[in-house]
Amino acid sequence: MENPSSKRTTAGALEENILAILDSTEADDTHYANDDRTSFLDAVRAASLVPENGTPPTFKWFESIFAILRIGKSLELTMASFKLLNELDKCFPRVHLSVVDEMKSSGKVMLIVENEAWSPFVFSSESTSSERGAANNLGGSVDSSGFQHLIEDLADATAEPNFQASETKSLGNMLLFQYLVNVLEGDFQPRNCVYAETANWVLLRESLLNMLLVSRKINYKNLMKDCLAIMCKLYRTNAGFADDLVSSETSMAQPAENFDTAATIALLEIGKNTCIAMQKFLIMIMELDLSKKTAEMQGSTTRADGVRTPLLEIVLDELTYDKDILDSFLQVFNEPKWKLEIVVQYLWKYIGKPSVRTRRANGPTDDASFNGALKCFSNVTSIKTTIKKIRPELAQLLLAHGLQAHLSLPCKQHVEGTSASSEERSNSSLIEVSENIISAFRNLKTADKKMEILPLGKEALFMAATIISAQS
């Protein structure tokens, strides 16, 4: 049997040998220094990922790789460190689930948390002065204020009228944000999964996401508004750059001097993935808000958990008062469950709240679902009142995107609470929604005879008609 002390000595020697690659050039920004950093990343990969039972990355390895991600001026190095960190996290997760009794199909799931593992975040109020100093260091871990500064930098960069991909710093910040969101997700999802079974709020209270959001070092509402602005601006920028790229490839003329094709392609890919990461970040917060609401109803929360405006309310307010971002948001935000919820809540703000069923009410009542909102468009008189508050074109966008989200939901979420089979309930619901969509557009046209059906509205009508035709 191998001596444990000998094994630790070997591991320590391996760590020192790999770190030694960086020692002589740690502060340099030369071609040779970048070559050494590349060699360091390759050495960590060879030690931890290539072997079947690789050596777990040490604290110092993680710190060094993360420093390369944060301050690397070479896009190639930044992307290499980003990729390596994500691969290491998948192979050596900090938080994961374990089945207690694998012999049973309904075995109990246990949450395993590696408390001593390295993390890119430093949130603890008891953090040492060295940890706080590291958080303020460009290459160190990120605290809550550092995360807000990152979002503010991204918001400032994407707000520039001539935002270009040539800025390595902006692309590096996008990759850094993507990685931090991946870490938050890897920590939050297993905890939320176990919370759904155990209702143990402490699991979510101790999540990195919750500790980030409850920190007094951030302005929560401004943070969320910046996140929405970044996602929508990046979507519009990517769409514009994609058009420029197509034009440069199809045109016989030489591209403009300030048009960097390689940088544009990099921005298209990194920008698209940043939009995906931003959506993931927002969805996690809304899921956390939902779990916290349940915990509050069960009396599991305390004053220490604080009071925070649910993100859904902030999103609705931003979309209401800044209608310029509504179209971009509906285009880029494609998670069906929350997209449909946002569309429905937005519609109900202008339609009026659904009627409440009383004990004596025997007939059907409008519900707060998408189909319930559609039924309110069956009355031309009420539609005339609605389009005084929102433009008919805006109503078309909401209805069309609502239908897209509804059709993307799993079948079990289309209709609940009836005794019919799942397939019968799903088909019945889709036909009813499709009929109500066609009726809503017809009545919108009746209420505003000058209204033109938008291309997206025509797609929704075609989709609805196809569903009805297929089921008849």
Count of separate structural domains: 3
Shape: globular
- SS-based structural class? mainly alpha
Report the end-to-end length measured between terminal Cα atoms. Answer: 72 Å
> Could you tell me the strand content as a percent range?
under 5%
If you compute it from the alpha carbons, what radius of gyration comes out, rounded to the nearest whole angstrom?
26 Å
Assembly level:
single chain
Q: Low-confidence parts, pLDDT < 50 over ≥5 residues?
A: 250-257, 356-366, 415-425
Helical percentage: 55-70%
Annotate the secondary structure layout.
Blueprint: H1 4-23, H2 31-48, H3 59-71, H4 75-91, E1 95-99, E2 109-113, H5 129-136, H6 144-159, H7 168-198, H8 201-205, H9 208-214, H10 220-250, H11 261-297, H12 311-321, H13 326-332, H14 336-351, H15 370-375, H16 380-386, H17 392-408, H18 422-447, H19 455-471
GO cellular component, one term: nucleus
Protein name: Negative regulator of systemic acquired resistance SNI1
Organism: Rosa chinensis (China rose)
Describe the structure.
The chain has 472 residues and is an all-alpha fold. It folds into three domains: 11-92; 94-101 and 109-115 and 138-333, no CATH class; 335-357 and 365-471. Helix content is 66%, strand content 2%. Strands 1-2 form a two-stranded antiparallel ribbon. α2 runs parallel beside α4 (75-91) and α16 packs across α18. Mean pLDDT is 82; it is low at 250-257, 356-366 and 415-425.
